[in-house]
Design goal:
Blueprint: H1 17-42, E1 47-50, E2 57-60, H2 68-80, H3 83-91, H4 94-119, H5 125-137, H6 141-151
Antiparallel strand pairs: 1-2
Helix pairs in contact: 4-5, 5-6
Amino acid sequence: MSVTSHEPNSLLGWNSSWGRTVLAWEDTFYRDVRFVKQAFEAAGYRLLYSRKKEQPGYYLDGKPALSSEIKQVLKGSAAEVDQRQIDIYRKLSFAERFHQGCSISDTARKVVAYRIRQDNPKLSLMEANGMALHIAYSQQRTNRWTLLVSSG
């Protein structure tokens, strides 16, 4: 078998499970970023991305990198950080860190589904999860999420 083969079982081919995992991760990442951008837009902000050395990454248009409120929160949070936790996290493999990130997303979806089922006890778990995913990834999700959060 050639390394450049595009067969489903090839080591580095497009159809390899690793390739599908990367594509799924990219799809999820871009969908999540789109959701975050829409949430900021609904609040009256524009989230932009820069490759410039002086301000790399995402930032809010016309806003300082960190507001004074965020600086205060970070100071308080930094005092709570345990260096042992940081050291453990650094020792995790990419796969373990990726799994941890996915589990955070899964937990958030489960919380939303639980909240939906509290408001609609006749829904099955599958229906509530479907609604939670719909809220997270639909075009009008910002308004639905606002309604869901404000209803509780």
